[in-house]
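ERR on first pass: missing label on line 2. Operator R.T. fixed the label and resubmitted. Corrected input:
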Amino acid sequence: MFLRNCWYVAAWSAEVGRTPLARTLLGRPVMLYRTVGGEAVALEDRCCHRSLPLSKGRIEGDHIRCGYHGLKFDRTGTCIEIPGQAHIPPGARVARFPLIERWKLLWIWMGATEPDESLLPDWHYIDDPAWLCIIGNGAKPVPMNCNWELNNDNLLDLSHVVYVHPTTLGSAGLENFPIRTERFVKSVRMTRWMPDVPPMPLFARLLDIKGRVDRFQTVDIDLPSHSVVDAGFAPAGKLAIDDDRTDAQRACILISATPETETTSFMFFAQARNFAKDNDELSRIYQQGSKVIFEEDIAIMEAQQRAAGALPDAAQIDINFDAPGLAMRRLVQRYLEKEASNA
Amino acid sequence: MFLRNCWYVAAWSAEVGRTPLARTLLGRPVMLYRTVGGEAVALEDRCCHRSLPLSKGRIEGDHIRCGYHGLKFDRTGTCIEIPGQAHIPPGARVARFPLIERWKLLWIWMGATEPDESLLPDWHYIDDPAWLCIIGNGAKPVPMNCNWELNNDNLLDLSHVVYVHPTTLGSAGLENFPIRTERFVKSVRMTRWMPDVPPMPLFARLLDIKGRVDRFQTVDIDLPSHSVVDAGFAPAGKLAIDDDRTDAQRACILISATPETETTSFMFFAQARNFAKDNDELSRIYQQGSKVIFEEDIAIMEAQQRAAGALPDAAQIDINFDAPGLAMRRLVQRYLEKEASNA
Amino acid sequence: MFLRNCWYVAAWSAEVGRTPLARTLLGRPVMLYRTVGGEAVALEDRCCHRSLPLSKGRIEGDHIRCGYHGLKFDRTGTCIEIPGQAHIPPGARVARFPLIERWKLLWIWMGATEPDESLLPDWHYIDDPAWLCIIGNGAKPVPMNCNWELNNDNLLDLSHVVYVHPTTLGSAGLENFPIRTERFVKSVRMTRWMPDVPPMPLFARLLDIKGRVDRFQTVDIDLPSHSVVDAGFAPAGKLAIDDDRTDAQRACILISATPETETTSFMFFAQARNFAKDNDELSRIYQQGSKVIFEEDIAIMEAQQRAAGALPDAAQIDINFDAPGLAMRRLVQRYLEKEASNA
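pass 2 clean. output:
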């Protein structure tokens, strides 16, 4: 059901501390906490004795003690104390999930293979001083009642902004510019190049932009769902589609959908930009707007999920703009098959 | 599961306008709207591209545009525009369901065969000036958490009024009068003839009726669930059981239960009468009473549904008064088998 | 799924009167009422005609009349009247379940064999004047969203009080005293003997106890879930583990968990003690504390149930203190197999 040999966002760093955090990820109950030294730990959230979630227990130093019969587990998930007996049987342990803490996020590996740090996406935007980054939803995930892959589809076909976000992103006419799809080993890229167009009204007003611009949208999604939506503009005629964008005005939206179950997910998101970093009014308007935008997207995806539940076998057609989304679904499918054949 | 080659009530005419109405009928999501010229249209409520309900989209002239990627469909369900491409693939369509608008209702045909207008029941009472007709529940269906066939059972055994509606319809002693069951090609009729009885207290008081009356109850149910409950009275001795009833004082209750799913339904109802048409007090009391009566019936049917869910294989006995209800269930079963053998 | 040839607590006597009480027991809908003479009756809560729960009907003398078509049943579940017909078909009956009323409780037998009064547990504490007994939760069962057997596990391993009830029962160090498990034909006993320990703080204060005591805990569970938790103390050195406890200060908690479904149960409980029977402050504090304690236990068991639902096949380890609980589960299993082989 889920890709396992890859990283998922488990939580924002700020969510995890000295009180257990319970979160179901990929259908498995997980509990997160920090040791005295600040190391984040992720354990299966189920005591191996009588199944009480360990998150209902108590942190003692670097360890967690079950709240039912007092079994104590260390940060590796090994049981190190059983009240009333000296002997600890060998099977007394719960699964521990490797974590990497980077870019203010906790990345979890729930696969059967060794964790591979090289599979992390590049989300440096979050703490790179060249960017101003606003963390979404107060550093909490947004719960979504839909399968995580719908979010990949959503981001890889931005023609939806005309219909789903008419009052915020709008951009009527965007659908007249063709898209390019690129398929990589573990990611897919969609690019739309919109030369010689008016600037987006919000930026034109707040940044006092005169004249026409070249706009671009690039969406990179790394397996399984780590997305960078790089949208920006430069004065018309300064850039070509594949030029270095360092000097362009760019907004990079970072989004990842972690599956909770087959039909529910957590969306983590942040918004970085490399321009007008001191413009608080822009920040404020941008944040308000993005709240509306994500709510609009989630309403669409949840309605799709309900429709899929009601008519699971209904046929569907594809359109030209689906090319990147279909490429991503094929990539996921290929990796799922690889995991199944290795299992 | 459902009879398909027949008409169902989809909505009251007044419910459907220039804003999409979403309603699940026979387990399928349907959306209803009207064209500029007022024609009512029923389409499958699921875009053939990525399954968003079309009812979440926008009506443009006579057409509906999907709210996700902007595909546009005409009143026949054919896709006539796909943003970003000129070619429209041949499978780009959603199902369209034939409608007939009559007696202030929209009748829908969700079957595989050609719609057959001759299968409509005769519900002329709703707009025939010989009758005063009060439309039930403000021209909205009443949702019921039960299978639609329980409603047929309920109406074809009116002996239940003694126990279910003691404070409104009451009629203790009614069970002492025998019933007659008639089986027709596509309907069943139950008749109870109660000669030389006191008038119903409500009518006796409001209409100042002296002396005894002959009362009758006839319930006709046309496939699948279109019911006319014709209940009335005449001065004792004036009528025989099968006489023309034109001159009797008659109340005709029209009821149809459209399945939403196997376990939920929509009840549409209206109350017509051919007497005391100007008596507003009677109308008011009648309307208030019928609200209570339908709530009582629905409470019974929903409890039956829960019981059937808890003990689906429990045996049941039949009693004499079940003859019309059993005849109707056999008729439905025969048509279901006919549809299955033709499929 | 359920042991059937045994007694279950159906209700407190005070719950059942001249209005039908509906309660699902062992997955079957049951209705309870009393005859004019006060005899308690338990019938299947489903009319054998069209499945309406009989509890929605009306008690008439010693009988119950269905609220839909008026079929009347006597206290044995036999239909004795069908409106509109003289003949009553032989299958017109609903199941009747034998009841015994004792110790202010109604004990029900839902098995296929003859009820065996000798299988009742000994719960004389409830109305024996040698004891003061406080009936729990205002003589109503406490609903629990968990399987009934979790309650047996809970009571047979009282080491949990250290972790689950730290602010009320506490007793840190209790886990250092070994337990003894005894297996009988239809029950299991756990005994913990804690010689020469300080008295429980609450009792030391309220009863002005000086000096050390010997404490004991004995938990007897009779099939399927009738538990007597006998906890008490005597001045240190006066008693040995198996001595007669008549002169000790004893609190006997009576608890039974009746299955409603596989995943929900009703907990019935009462607290008896043979000391300080006039001490109202002790009664009040004891009652308040027990409310908190049962809420804590139920929260644990409900979390276990959710975990079992999420990961039904997860392995578990056992610890030394599980011996009594495992003995009880094996006893239940043995009787289940016996019932299955006789069926």
